[in-house]
Design goal:
Shape: globular
Distance between the termini: 24 Å
Bound molecules: flavin-adenine dinucleotide
Helix content: 10-25%
Radius of gyration: 18 Å
Largest sheet: 5 strands, antiparallel
Oligomer: single chain
Structural class: alpha+beta
Strand content: 15-25%
Number of strands: 17
Strand order of the largest sheet: 4-5-12-8-9
Order of helices and strands: EEEEEHHEEEEEEEHEHEEEHE
Number of helices: 5
Length: about 240
């Protein structure tokens, strides 16, 4: 557990572990302690500790009538995990209202961080995000975001398994190559939404990897598109 701005360089940082596939050959793991679970208004800006769960952010915004974080309501994870991948729902993304991020060597402004669709160049521990403050919590958006998730399975998953390739949808491609509902061992591509790899009970890391590689192979052969995983694979054999 990390409770200061010092941390070992060889350990892998876990946030809420919602977007990870952890194998038996994982490196040492670390996590930010409760010291980084906070949210406060300072000088008309919102300061959020990286270990703060999304649900807490939404409750705070509702209580203080603040806008722009409604999409986080049904997005599992901590602020740190959301920052690292620029998490979001359609065009609503965590970077949209970000001002700067605190790392152990100081603040980095939004303009100094590279980011795009579900990606950033953040490769060190983020301790805090600072956001613009805007009034107006919109309750109707909570319902809208819930509706946008209506086609997602309730079985355990890590969310979307692959990133959507430019101009297409990973789920559509997986379905096209006949893998919607396809099962290997205890893991399957959901029959509700093909880009969700679900654990049907006793799924293993090897089952998940076999399914991942099968979809990548078939989609590459049929469409010449290499599906890139959105889920981070934490096992030395698959990390570069
Ligand atoms: C059912 C379900 C639905 C989902 N739907 C969506 C969705 O609609 N949109 C979306 O974007 N995501 C979605 N996800 C994925 C997940 O919610 C996000 O990826 C979220 O950002 C993960 O946060 P986490 O704290 O669990 O991070 P983790 O899964 O623990 O880690 C993810 C990555 O972030 C890094 N990281 C964690 N904390 C920090 C930090 N403090 N500093 C630097 N790097 C850090 C980790 O090292 C890792 O590389 C979904 C997941 C599930 C299970």
């Amino acid at each position: 557990m990390i409770d200061s701005h010092e941390y070992p360089e060889d350990a892998y940082l876990v946030g809420g572990a919602n977007n990870l596939l952890i194998g038996p050959e994982h490196p040492p793991l670390m996590k930010l302690s409760k010291a980084f679970d906070y949210i406060k208004i300072v000088d008309n800006q919102l300061h959020i500790g990286a270990a703060t769960p999304g649900g807490k952010v939404v409750s705070f915004c509702k209580k203080h009538d603040l806008a722009n974080f409604e999409f986080v309501a049904h997005l599992p994870g901590t602020l740190g995990g959301m920052l690292q991948m620029n998490a979001g729902l359609k065009e609503y993304e965590i970077f949209n209202h970000l001002h700067k991020v605190y790392f152990k060597d100081g603040y980095q402004l939004l303009g100094d961080i590279e980011y795009g669709y579900r990606t950033t160049n953040i490769d060190k521990v983020a301790f805090e995000g600072i956001f613009e403050l805007e009034k107006g919590f919109d309750l109707s958006k909570i319902d809208m975001f819930k509706q946008m998730r209506a086609n997602q399975p309730h079985d355990p998953s890590a969310g979307s398994f692959f990133k959507n390739p430019i101009g297409d949808y990973a789920g559509r491609l997986i379905e096209e190559v006949g893998l919607k509902g396809h099962r290997i061992g205890g893991m399957a591509y959901s029959d509700k939404h093909a880009n969700f790899m679900v654990n049907l009970g006793k799924g293993t890391f090897d089952d998940a990897i076999a399914l991942m590689q099968l979809a990548q192979k078939r989609v590459l052969e049929s469409f010449e598109i290499l599906l890139e995983n959105e889920v981070a694979i934490i096992d030395r054999r698959f990390m570069n």
